[in-house]
Write a structure and sequence with these properties.
Order of helices and strands: EHEEEEEEEE
CATH architecture: Sandwich
Structural class: alpha+beta
Radius of gyration: 15 Å
Largest sheet: 9 strands, antiparallel
Oligomer: single chain
CATH topology: Jelly Rolls
Number of strands: 9
CATH superfamily: Jelly Rolls
Helix content: 10-25%
Shape: globular
Amino acid sequence: MRFDLFSVQTTGFKKILSVLTSIFFICACTFLYGQKFSPPIGANDSIPKSIKSVPAFSDSLCSSFFITIEQEVKLHRHNFHSEHVYILDGKGKMQLGEEQILVQAGDLIFIPKGKAHALKVTEGPVKVLSIQAPFFDGTDREWITP
């Protein structure tokens, strides 16, 4: 399921406001729980070097990452985690189950646990904020061969 926060005609102000709202949300969660994120165990072990994942914040209930994708994220799924992906910058074609969708800055995508997903950059790099629940240590990533 994809939720477009803004249409193509959205002003730059609304996009900036959206990003600031996301940052405020992360900061508020961190303040409430009082924990800064430590790097997930094994999180980057199986990720290609063209994908940069920087841990943001977490607690036992969720984890967040800032991810930069230069080319693509290959097809995979998380069997025990749901994920929200907020596109901060760039454009791409996302596979979500059997569906192909175009994504761009301002889009928020919900990925239910067990749903196969991938992303191919069409204008980038693509920068995203990924929020996963429950806590993600990097081990719940199953790569899928198409």
